[in-house]
Specification:
11 strands; Arc Repressor Mutant, subunit A; 19% strand; Rossmann fold; 3-stranded antiparallel sheet; 232 residues
């Protein structure tokens, strides 16, 4: 069964023809799809009846996609794919750390969008499983609030740091390379420096230390990558 079968996808897009094409392709793959064409209607709908995934256009009448994504991350971690008409916008969006899970540029193939949606839903399912199992090691990952707690104390993580920690905690003791971690963080396989992972790892370690002195459940494996291995 397709990972998309029976899932609810919300498309927030003000171009009716484009939205209709995306809807038709996603429905053909088994999804249930709702459409919103005005930015002001997005957040109320997301609060009232959250979907499994949202395709969110950057430029919208009323509330723009940036604001919607920022406010959404205050109360939900549902998967978000941002849509922009300018490829140069992606670097800026990444720098803002909005908490979006993927980005795609117009024009695009509807089939590519369906493939991205499948991949992101599959990864979201894996992360949810990780959130449940990681609590046994002292780490509590709260998907609904986008919060992490270490042995009862909150870790003040950014969205990217949260996703990075979830990827590592999914399989405690399993070594992940920088390339594997980047794939977990960015499903579109964009070109990002491996050292981006090192920077995020450094920040996460610092926050563990700030929460509990001497605490560092993330281990470096020289020449290979990182693993999550707490001392029980």
């Amino acid at each position: 069964m397709s990972q998309i079968q029976g899932k609810r996808v919300l498309i927030v897009e003000d171009e009716p023809k484009l939205a209709a094409v995306l809807r038709d392709y996603l429905v053909a793959d088994g999804a249930n799809v709702d459409l919103i064409g005005h930015g002001d209607d997005a957040l109320p709908a997301l609060r009232l009846n959250p979907p499994d995934l949202v395709l969110l256009d950057l430029m919208l009448p009323g509330t723009d996609g940036l604001t919607i994504c920022k406010e959404l991350r205050q109360f939900s971690t549902l998967p978000v794919i941002m849509i922009t008409a300018r490829v140069e916008e992606i670097d800026r969006l990444l720098g803002l750390e909005l908490g979006a899970d993927d980005y795609i540029c117009k024009p695009f193939s509807p089939r590519e969008v369906v493939a991205r949606v499948r991949a992101l839903l599959r990864r979201s399912h894996d992360w949810q499983r990780a959130a449940g199992s990681s609590a046994q090691t002292g780490l509590d990952l709260d998907e609904d609030r986008y919060e992490a707690h270490w042995r009862g104390r909150r870790l003040d993580l950014t969205p990217v740091e949260f996703r990075l920690l979830k990827a590592l905690a999914h399989r405690p003791g399993h070594v992940m390379s920088r390339a594997q971690l980047l794939e977990q963080l960015y499903v579109d396989h964009r070109v990002v420096s491996d050292r981006t992972v090192d920077s995020h790892i450094k920040n996460v370690r610092r926050k563990f230390e700030e929460t509990e002195a001497g605490s560092d459940p993330i281990k470096s494996i020289y020449g290979v990558g990182y693993k999550y291995e707490p001392e029980l």
